[in-house]
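user: can you give me the structure for this one chain? tokens are fine.
assistant: on it. calling the predictor now.
[tool input]
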Amino acid sequence: MARGIGIGDVVAITATVRRRVTEDRVSVSIPSYSFPHSIRDSSKVKRGQQIELTGEVTRTDEEGRKVTIDMWPLVTIDIDKIRLVEKYRPPKRKKPLRDMVN
């Protein structure tokens, strides 16, 4: 189970290729997501092959069991189906918000 997942983190999902829709689009099945998802893919993937999709976490539920990932459209899946790729780090300030007065 992926613990410590927060908003802004980049996560990966392993999806299964369902079929080729057009020559540059592929329909994939995402675990714990009830709808088919289509992605742009120019490589020669075949039906049943595993493919890794990455996206940014936009929302988590109160219990911490489901997360919403921005893969255009938003996809809500179980937290145990994802893998953390990169933790969000807020930007550092180069100078203080206000001038220091003595």
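assistant: here you go. Strands lie at 10-20, 25-29, 37-40, 50-60, 66-70, 74-78, 82-86. The two ends are 51 Å apart (CA to CA).
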